[in-house]
């Protein structure tokens, strides 16, 4: 695979929110929990973990918040026009961004999950690739 040239540009579905990923993600996680299935309207969601300094985001964002089963607060930022979830953050750890809009990047070669979490709630037809870390719940 060819090396990715950073920064990589991207945008939400309607183009009102733009982002620039300036460095490789620290981690790429596929989450199979029921909440992520609802969020993604699919079998799982992809979360790309990045440092706050490694991503620039411009455009108006709206916010939603919920408390996870772990007790952590999860603040979600999304485009008010198209509704695309852009990122999530735990206010207790604001330097770690859970970037949800990686599919909107112009180059997505770096978006390969190395870890699958909440596999206890995954859809029965989903097969986790051999050799990839998996956890029945959040690690």
Automatic annotation (TrEMBL):
It comes from the Bacteria. GO terms for molecular function: carbon-sulfur lyase activity; metal ion binding. Pfam families: GFA. Keywords: Lyase, Metal-binding, Zinc. The keyword DNA-binding does not apply. InterPro entries: CENP-V/GFA, Mss4-like_sf. Residues 8-126 form the CENP-V/GFA domain. Belongs to the Gfa family. PANTHER family: CENP-V_GFA DOMAIN-CONTAINING PROTEIN-RELATED, GFA DOMAIN-CONTAINING PROTEIN. This is CENP-V/GFA domain-containing protein. It comes from Vibrio rumoiensis 1S-45.
